[in-house]
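Case study.
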Amino acid sequence: MKKKLTPQKALVRHLILMGGAIFMLAPFLWMLSASMRSPEEIFHGGFSLFPQRWYALENYTKAFTAQPLIRYMLNGSLVVVVIFILQALIATPCAYALAKLKFKGKKMLFGMVLTGLLIPPQAVAIPVFLMLWKMKVINTYAALVMPWTISVLGIFLMRQFFLTISDEIIDAARIDGMSEIGIVCRLMVPTAVPALTAFAIISVVSHWNDYFWPLIVLTDQNLYTPPLGVSFFANEEVGNDYGSLMAAASIIIAPLVVGFLAAQDKFINGIAMQAGVKG
Amino acid sequence: MLKSISSPMPSPIELSTRLPSRQALRQVGLQTIQQRVAFALVTPATLLILILLIGPILIVVGLSFTDWQFGNPAMNFIGMDNYAQLTQDEVFRTSFLNTCVYSLVEVPLSILLGLLAAILIEMGGSLKKFYRAAYFLPVMSCTVAMAITWQFMLHPGIGLAAIVLPFFGLEGFELLQGQNTALFTLCGIGIWQNLGFNMVLFMAGLAGIPGELYEAAELDGAANGWDRFRLVTWPLLSPVTLFVTVITAIRSFQVFDTVHVLTGGGPNNATEVLIYTMYTEAFVFFRTGYAAAITVVFLACVFLFTFIKLYFLEKQVHYK
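After joint prediction, the assembly is written out as follows.
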């Protein structure tokens, strides 16, 4: 299968894949192109990759000033960072114990983790909402963060990783008098950086893009995350100002797109791992 | 921590007699220490799994047997009434049917196209990384932002649709507003977004197929590419295909963002889907008990997909 392709085959391959790639990239090109065109040009219809009159500065300025877009971006950043830090702090020790320590109830706990993997977040939305409402934290950052502090996916992923580390290293550390906590912090975590990176990518991508949960727990516009912000902008503010709307949309997808283009393999491995765990 | 059980050096004679018990003591000490450390390490995660995942599932099931409405002090046990009402509810029936249609369109197409892309990209030749990035980009991108972009592109007056639709004699047609087209348009956006996800999983699967098998197939007379696909790729990829199918099916049942942003379940319930109905019942109409029953139906579907997968996996093991 990995043989050198005949020129005809190579051509057919490129024709099909290029056609597909144009379809896949069309919305991105459309978005970027529209974000640089003036309203008159947009309403004139038709498509040209580059505008007749550059209007990018106006559109992007409006995207930032017609709504608190920077605030949305900061909200989003704060939420994804805090979520991941808490997830890692809670999941990593548990994963280490599941992989390397003997204790009562280990099988049962692992069974709970596997059960947790089957539970889609929408299924627990109602009770978790009620819980947060009882705690009077609806419409706060806490409501955006607390439901995600546990990541069974992260526990599973990190456990699989810790299983690949040989017991001899750990035993040697124990004989050297290192405590279990010390083993986790000074021996395990540094070697687990690649696994933690994958975990971070999975977590950040899903929470930066999440729409369902912020929609449920937020009405205060000051706390909006980027997806809520752009959807609000599309509905209420602009009406027909597609140029600045597309500018706002391209700004909110930019961090992940740039990250992805810079570290393609890491992103793809991370997302594939997520599927592998759930599958 | 080990210091607590090590006493000053014993004399050699003492040592020889005490050694076994001392070692055993050490062993027991290590075990209890390990046990205690383990409990400390797993307690936060265990509590949170119970509070945020397993507990809520039990609560949802419990709520589905009540008539409770959010904000209402009265909560009555009404048995299976919510479920009985679901079978009579026109909106729910449409919603469930739409979700199935959405899934039946999106799952096979995003899998076939994902597989095709994976095979073409991996068969050799140039631009491998570019194609992979292009097809994967939508997976990374915020669904809401991309849905708004699609809405603009599909605008019959000023979008890409204004250029493309006339070729099909559909000038001025709003795909997202049509009673018969809205759901399929959402399927299209779903396929566009998930195809790259499936592609990446298939690429990983393809990388695991040993090249010798293709040579062997060729020697046995599998001359063309189709034969090689049929005899080697497809059978060896079947475990990957199985889990890609299940994961895509589950994801398709979770469709929400595009519906909420683009159609609001309309026109005339044409794009009403399970999670959207659950959301409106729970968080717009505040019929909590009823929404819990919808959640249970959703959860049952998700578990069903998982059991189907386990059943087939079991079968595969028996074949071996």
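Observations recorded in class. The mean pLDDT of chain A is 90. Chain A touches chain B through 103 residues (CB under 8 Å). We will return to this complex in the next lecture.
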